[in-house]
Amino acid sequence: MKIYTKIYAIIALLYCVVPVALAQNVYQGDLQFNNLHTSRQNDELVVKVDLDISFIDLNSQRVILLTPVLRSNNQSNEHYFDPIIIAGSIRDKVIERNPNLYNFKPEEALIYVIRKNGKEQSFPVELHVPFDKWMYESKLYFEEYVSGCAQCEIGSREHLIADGVVAPPFEPSYNLQYVTPAVEEIKDRKENYAARLNFRVGRSELVRDFGNNASVLQEVDQKVTDIRTDQNLTFQDMTVTGYASPEGNYNSNMELSRGRTHSFVNYLTSAHQIDPKRIKTYWKGEDWEGLRKSVDTSFLADKASVIRIIDEFSDINRRKQALQTLNGGQTYRILLAEYYPPLRRIEYTLAYIVRPFNVEEAKEVIKTKPQHLSLNEMFLVAQTYQEGTKEFERIFDIAVTLYPDNSDALVNASVQDIQIGAVDRAIERLTGLDSAEALNNLGVAYAKKENYIRAEECFQRAAQMGNKVAQDNKNQLDRFLQEK
After folding, report:
1. β-pair partners for 58
2. What is the mean pLDDT of residues 289-302?
3. What pTM was computed for the model?
């Protein structure tokens, strides 16, 4: 049983207790508490304070019971320490002569001292308690009870010694970094399209009124015209590549893809007066790679067998024969009807140069043709909005969508990811990038995931590159881990 509990029991048994406010007739002067110091040592909270009783004049018949109490800020938790006993000279002799009467031994108290009025008396108090989280911002009190005769409580009060004994744990505030993309001196752009034109079997002549050619050519006309008439663009050249589906004779299909490519080029030079020297032509014949990709992403029942045949048979004729006989020919009929027709196509690329835009122009261009902006122009537009707004975030989303492999776009998008809690996506974007900004942001992402070893590695590498933000983040992480 705690010593202070024993003292309370004695008081209750022997006398009628009537607590009153501590007044001048209890004792003269005041207790003083000086040089408070708190610390966490391993898993223990240690509180040190000097108790000075030099300024009190205590009646020789009286005794002061001081009980340190640690109480949580919301008062839902508390811890009582062993008491400090300050006895008058006569009261000390009574306690010494009658230890059994009081059920109390001086050596059981945290501190037992006899007050010698008129003399300086000061002594250190040291409190130890296993640390618990509720002790953050807790308060330290000394509850004081004064007894007059043997167990008469004649006064009580409470001393608030510290408000906020343990400061809340350090919470790091990591800084993320954006990258200002370099100015793109010449904004070269390319737009890729496919024209799925219809040709008569075994023929390469392009007939506008055959099949759906009219609508396909109308789409081609619109795209070519849009680029060549846009005052912000300077048309450079075109690349045209022809493909054939893999049924029939391999050599004949190669010639068909060549002839159909030239027919499409002839249409462009005639309809749009494009200089033939500005058109680069290629023909690939049978598009086995395209067939494999379309089957691989399909729900075709025999897709595994089709892919195996394409991969294992290097001889084209044996490959075709294996496909034709697969599943009694049923699979091949599906291939002919659904998978081969899209392979017969013309792919074309339009290359052009975009003029530079100022910020106000770029704010309008990004609404309709963001592909005409450089990353630097997008970044400058973003700076016109407050960070965290939808407009600000939207620009970085557009940037990483248009430039998914650009390191600057990935670094800037990672800031948005981390801020909204998409930490795994940020890590995926940043992994493999070696710029200081990328490493710093990656360190923040790992810290958010509580992977402190990887976080520190990233901060350290970025700091070694001279990145001051990363060095500050590392310092914050180190402090957090030390106080954790």
Report:
1. none
2. 95
3. 0.69
